[in-house]
Amino acid sequence: MYVEEGCKVPADGFIIKANDLRIDESSLTGETLAVFKQVNNELDTDDYWRNDYCYTGTLVTTGSGTILVDKIVLETEYGKIGSHLAKAIDTPTPLEIQTNKIVKISAVIATILFIMVSVFTFLNESHLELKE
Questions:
Q1: pTM for the whole thing?
Q2: Angle at CA 13, nearest 5°, toward 77 and 5?
Q3: Which residues are within 8 A (CB) of 52 and not within 5 positions of it... i.e. 6 or more apart?
Q4: Fewer CB within 10 Å of terminal CB in the chain, N or C?
Q5: In 75-90, which positions are buried (b, 16+ CB within 10 angstroms) versus exposed (e)?
């Protein structure tokens, strides 16, 4: 796969050729600066984010390069993130729990006040009718 400045990388893969290739990986790593990518023949590195590897969804900011596609769809870093999000259990946050409690308490108080106002209004109107 050939990528150049302005392209979004469509698949994960190893860099075969690079010409001043810099890639913005901020969507994955949070780094603000573009990462300089280069050809590296060492396949056994301990770094998770490699300088000889391109990741799906990142943006080529300068240069061009040829990439040997290694992973696609769910095997990519974005795919892993998506599959983890799909499996995540939707548990309410502490703010949601507190908000639900306040809403329930407010509803009960409003119902009680509505009933009290209705009863007092009914009693006052019926009392006024008896006097006339």
A1: 0.61
A2: 95
A3: 14, 15, 37, 38, 39, 40, 42
A4: C
A5: ebbbbeeeeeeeeeee
